[in-house]
Amino acid sequence: MKAIDHHPARIESPDGCIPHAAPILPLLTGVAAHVLSFDPFSNDVNMNSETTINQFDSTSGTIVASLAFSGHQFDQAAEDGKGHLFVADNNGHLAFVDYDNVSNKHINGSGNFTADPFLITHLDDIALLSGAGSQPVPEPATMLLLGSGLIGLVGYGRKKFFEK
Length: 164
Known about the structure:
four-stranded antiparallel beta sheet; elongated
C-alpha cells in the first residue's frame, strides 16, 4: 500500500458565511480507518476500524504493524505518548497495547502486551489526560479566605495579649 497525495478542499462554516480552506489527506487506499491518532512515542499514526488497529509510518508511507481483535467494533483511540495505546470498542471493551519495551516501537512487536477487558456496555469514546500533569493552583477565593482567617487569628491573639 502506498501513500497518495492530498487534495485541497473548501469547507464552509455551518452558517455558510466563513469559507475555510483545508487539506483532505487520503493516507492509503484500501485501508479502513474510523479514527486516526498521532503517537509521539513512535512518531507514527495509529488507525483503527472495526477489528483492526494499524500503525502507519508517514515517512515510508506504509503500514508497519497491525493488530486484530476478533469480535470488535473499534471506535476512538488515544495514546499517552509513552508507548501505551487505548482503543475503545462500541461493545464495551477497551483494547490496551503496551509497546514501550519493544525495540522498533511497533504495536505488534516482540515483547508487547495486549489486554482486552470488558468495562461497560456501549463504551464508545476515550480521551486520555496525558503528560506530567500540573501542580494544583489554589483559587484566589480560597487564598482570600485563608488570609482573612489568619488575620483574624492574629487580631484575636493580640487582643488577648493586651487584655492581660
